[in-house]
Structure formats: C-alpha cells, structure tokens
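Chain A, query sequence.
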Amino acid sequence: MTERDVRSVEHLDLDKYLGLWYEIVRLPLKWEDTHATNITARYSRKENGKIRVDNRSFDNEGHPGQAIAEATPVDGEPGQLKVNFAPKYIRWIPFTSGDYWVLKIDDDYRVALVGTPDHENLWVLARDPHLPEETLDEYLAEARVQGFELDKLIRPVHDGRVVTDDLIEGADGD
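Chain A, predicted structure.
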C-alpha cells in the first residue's frame, strides 16, 4: 500500500479528543522503551490554539519519563495533525514535525486508532487502561485494512501506577 491508502477520519472534534488517553498497543518506536509501562498521553489546548501533548511512562527500571510536544491541526484535514517533540527554539524548522493521523474513533471518543501515512507508526489509545479484546480486534482490523503490518505490536502493561508531576520533578534531582 502507499501513503494515499491511509485514511484519516473525515471529522474530528479536537475539544472532545482532549484529555487523558492510555496506550493500549503500538508498533515499536525508536524513542520509546520497548518495556515501558503505564504509558499515557494527555492532550490540552494551549493559548495559541495548538495542542499540548504530554506523554508519560515508566521505563523498564521503573523510572518515570515525560516527553512534551506541540501538535498543530492540518488545514482542511480534520483528522490530521503535525506533532513536534523538538525543543521550542527549533520547532519552526519544517522537518522536525511528524504526522499524527486519527484513523478511527468511536462516537464517544473513548477509543482511537492513530497512525502515520508511511505505515511506520500505529497506536490504539483508549480512555481506560484496559480495553475489551473485541474492541481492540475491531480497531486492529481497521489498521490491517489500511495496510499496517501488525506482527510486531507491543502491548504495554498498565498496573495502576501513574507518572505524576511530583515523580517527574523528583526524577530531575536523582
């Protein structure tokens, strides 16, 4: 399949999308520990209208981690955003941002399939850390239809631990 075979949703209400999401499954990422646990993403609106992305997890040794990014909606493509994890002072450089396409989302904004048009990145996110298997299967079936290979999916553990602001601040001093 080619990039044009990946289809984002035709309508996305960003205000309904904001809030906390749990990573249920993903394809491997260069920048994320394969054994990371309790992975969350919190999306919030910034004063400039862009979206703040706050990703948190525990690494394989139990240390908390955080990555902050900024997402910008793509004009004319409601289900597409550009996400930039680069430091603020170089975010203006075009190649520092990546695609973030919402490929499927339920009417209540409880479960989302997110991917990139090159088929390299894929996530199933949910508002609850534990998703029924039949729901996960439905979202993975859509990923297959859109050409994603799912043989290397990673399912992070969610054991109830949360990376709080206090843990992040405490990690700086260790």
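The helical segments are 14-17, 133-145, 165-173. Strands lie at 19-26, 37-45, 51-58, 64-74, 77-84, 97-105, 111-115, 122-126.
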